[in-house]
């Protein structure tokens, strides 16, 4: 039975029985500012009193225009066009549609294969799920997904979590580059790999190959975008500008449904009409209320220089998690970037997901929320991804509760490991 939520305050959520839960995973790695942030809620209240909805083909709104200006200023390179959607899945769907239409527009209809990675997660709508390397979430849906997209998958080498440069090159050669419409990649993984980081050399090589062969590079920054990894965007760590960047989750930080697809000027220029009339869209997309929430969130991120803050707090949290890893044999590794972190777990291959769900349950008993991730024993993990404005004391409280959760999950660490940890 799930608890009934009563209210939230900063990194804390409370249920109707008065129990407090420290949010160690920002909901689904989306409530990036925590709960009840006045700068956001008051802006939303003002907008609600003014107008909640105006249809995107009839009006734009001041918060939407301003949000687009902010996003295109923050984004690298010439990602100068923004198309709004309501969820990460819809954003990915839109990116897939755009890649297909882009090649059709230039009389290259044969360029229709999309290459993605397994593990990866791009969303639950049919196209996004077809593009996802997440067998657990695809289970039973193959008949629905088969015709949704022509998708190929690149897989990491045995024992690795992400594909390396050679694996990507080989996959592209096998498909034949002239068939390739787009490559979709998560700079840092989420639900599928548990914060496994793509080698920056992979992103750089994909950029080169995209330029050479004319396919589009799509960065799925739904989770990693807008400060989560200690940079404005996950791609920034590699110095790479994608052709399409999809933002979601943290863009309105859980205050309203909103996502955005940023498109390079060169791609938009391939059409003889505005992108909005190429792509069509969704009824609620970019409505004034969601736009106000998004604008207030992004302005908060800018005003508090959140990427720099996440670099510092991410380093601090990582060190604390490494100490935990040394104390608890069930922890295989600590991975991720910034505050998009995860504990890789030693899983039982006969029962996956298993240990991650046990840990999430044990943590909830300790008043701590964690997000389970992984598609198999190799990737099984829990994400540790607190709000980006968490204080040091809050991060330490998180680790204390996580330590207790791990202890309640397995017998105490071997005495010699414990003694060793105590000497640090
Ligand atoms: C990288 C990534 N892409 C896409 C999605 C789908 O987003 P949504 O759940 O908002 O549809 C998610 C959600 O977890 C995600 O992590």
Automatic annotation (TrEMBL):
Keywords: Aminotransferase, Pyridoxal phosphate, Transferase. It holds the Pfam family Aminotran_3. The keyword Transmembrane helix does not apply. The keyword Cell wall biogenesis/degradation does not apply. InterPro entries: Aminotrans_3, Aminotrans_3_PPA_site, PyrdxlP-dep_Trfase, PyrdxlP-dep_Trfase_major, PyrdxlP-dep_Trfase_small. GO terms for molecular function: pyridoxal phosphate binding; transaminase activity. Signal peptide: none annotated. SUPFAM superfamilies: PLP-dependent transferases (SSF53383). Belongs to the class-III pyridoxal-phosphate-dependent aminotransferase family. PANTHER family: AMINOTRANSFERASE (PTHR43094), AMINOTRANSFERASE CLASS-III (PTHR43094:SF1). This is Aspartate aminotransferase family protein.
